Description:
The N and C termini lie far apart (about 60 Å). Helix content is about 65%, strand content about 10%. The chain has a three-stranded antiparallel beta sheet, covered by helices on one side. The protein folds into two domains: about 1-85, Hypothetical protein rpa1041 (Alpha-Beta Plaits, 2-Layer Sandwich), CATH 3.30.70.1530; about 85-125. By secondary structure, it is mainly alpha-helical.
Amino acid sequence: MSKILFKLNGVPDDEANDVRALLTDNNIDYYETTAGNWGVSMPAIWLKDAGQFKKARALLDDYQNARTIRMREEFARLKKEGKNKTLVDAIKEKPVQFIFHLGLALLVIYLSIRLVIDIGGIGLKE
């Protein structure tokens, strides 16, 4: 029976590739599912044999702990060098996209508040 090991939602390509290599190097049989054409399925790495789950989970936990330490060290180094990406950097990188998303968020907030006021106003008129 198959068993899910690792969900791929929002996982960077390098991490997914590392997990694939880790499983292959340790002779653990797996397969992947994608999000599908409409993005409604769950992209994940599944073990073909649930009996290998404990071994695979231990390997994955060790990998993720080492990756966490590596990423934190890299972030600290970039921060120390002043090269870490900030919100202002992201806005400068794609200002049109930022303005579009900000406008969209404000529109949703406005429409939500307007709906509540309109519904509340109906009760006051009667």
